[in-house]
Amino acid sequence: MPTQAYFDQYPSFPDDVQTAELQRVSFAKLLSQDSAEAKTLFEACRAWGFFVLDFEGCEEGQSFLQSAADMFELDKEVNSMDVEELMKYAYKPPYSLFGYKEAGNLKIEDGRPDRVEFYNVGRDDIMGVSAPLSNPPCIEQSRLALKSYMEQAHSIVRLICATLDSQLRLPSGTLASLQPLDKPSGTALRLLRYLPQPTADRRTSLLGHTDIGSLTILFNITGGLQLLAPGTDPTDEANWRYVKPVPGCAIVNLGDAMVEWSAGVLRSNMHRVTYAPGAQGQTPRYSHAYLVRPQAEAPMKRLAGGDSLIPELEQGEEENTMNAKEWEAHKAVAIRQGRDNARSRGGREIKLKGEKIATVTVSEVGA
Ligand SMILES: O=C(O)CCC(=O)C(=O)O
Ligand SMILES: [Fe+2]
After folding, report:
1. Whole-complex ipTM
2. Peptide bond into 294 cis (omega under 30)
3. Residue 285, Cβ neighbours under 10 Å: how many?
4. pTM of this prediction?
5. β-strand 50-54 against 24-26: which pairing, if any?
6. What number does the ligand 1 atom closest to the CA of 287 have?
7. Which residues contact 35 (CB under 8 A, 6 or more apart)?
8. Percentage of residues of the chain with pLDDT beyond 70
9. Which value, to the nearest 10 degrees, does the dihedral of the CA atoms of residues 193, 199, 202, 205 take?
């Protein structure tokens, strides 16, 4: 959600839809190590697994918003190419996560085709960590802008990780060391487009899911993103709450890898995209998501031990002995075989020496 100028190009988000009231965290305050802000971030990561990160009030934040605006321009450019041309760069999961996904090639909850298209730009490709991939000309010409965006996004990820390290009482640098910029990973910048849907034939555009990686930095301008209220039934439409985009802010969410490392203390929440509410629904919707995945060799086991607030293995629980690459492949197979249905995970209470020290419920954060 970059600057106000972008918001002014679209009808406004209606007042009469029910929204998820997410915590707003100030990037400038996190940078200055404000302890109340760090606590707000931590509680949001346990309750919803989502928060709004506000970049106003500091130069670094303003420069990131400018780069995010550049990525919206690239999003529009790449997705306006002919589909036939884009299909030369088709992504082929699980073998290749990078490239173009056409609208309609995945199914939504009722079996109908989805209505989202995107282009995944691989970070290893852009940072020179892997051999270069072949991309459409507009992506090739934007390598420098993409590199700059990814470097800035990475420093924001490091700041969030440092904040979570201290809140979880992990040695400083722990979470960031599992996802460095210069080691192979499945990290990508996803440039998404959702074309307006006919009023008489509307459906979910992007199926409900959790993000498999560690962290996502998401920018959008119009509504459409919905979160499943924690602890509620996904088949009841009333439980899916819109997130209202805010100028100058990104939406940050945690993925399944954070749940593994924190043994369920942190939360990865179900979300989906549907048509934008009100008059916004008549316009094409663009969003971009920097989807961070752990480095391929990173162990996925819980970061318990020492002073850490992460619980030790309990009876009946199994240690995750896989590395990130193995774990991601294992999950992909399990999902395809229907053994691992998408569901929210994490948000468990923290106990210290057998004593419960903190419980965060959604009502406390104003859902
Ligand atoms: O387009 C959006 O707002 C969300 C996209 C998303 O959740 C994803 O790509 O994982
Ligand atoms: Fe997502």
Report:
1. 0.99
2. no
3. 24
4. 0.95
5. parallel
6. 1
7. none
8. 95
9. 10
Which residue's CA lies nearest to atom 9 of ligand 1? 289
pLDDT band at residue 334, thresholds of 50, 70 and 90? confident
Domain harbouring 170, CATH code: 2.60.120.330
The residues lining ligand 1, judged by C-beta closer than 6 Å to any ligand atom, are: 190, 192, 206, 211, 218, 220, 225, 271, 273, 287, 289
Question: Which residue has the CA at smallest separation from atom 10 of ligand 1?
Answer: 211
Contact status, residue 342 vs residue 270, Cβ threshold 8 Å = yes
- Counting the structural domains of the chain, the total is 1
Strand ranges, E, within 211-282: 215-220, 225-228, 240-242, 249-254, 271-273
Sheet containing 50-54: give its strands across. Answer: 24-26, 50-54, 249-254, 215-220, 285-292, 188-194, 117-122, 99-101
Measuring CA to CA, which residue among 62, 42, 60 is closest to residue 51?
42
Give the model's pLDDT for residue 93: 83
User: How far, in Å, CA of 209 to CA of 211, rounded?
Assistant: 7
Evaluate whether 164 touches 158 at the Cβ level (below 8 Å).
Answer: no
Tokens (6 digits) for 82: 């002919």
Q: Buried b vs exposed e over 13-45: b needs ≥16 C-beta within 10 Å?
A: beeeeebbebbebbbbbbbeebeebbebbbbbb
Q: Domain limits at 257? A: 4-365
218 — phi, psi (to 5°)? -115, 130
Rg (CA), the chain: 20
Q: Which ligand is nearest to the CA of 243?
A: 1
C-alpha pair distances (Å), 208 with each of 27, 106, 220, 271, 314: 28, 12, 17, 5, 30
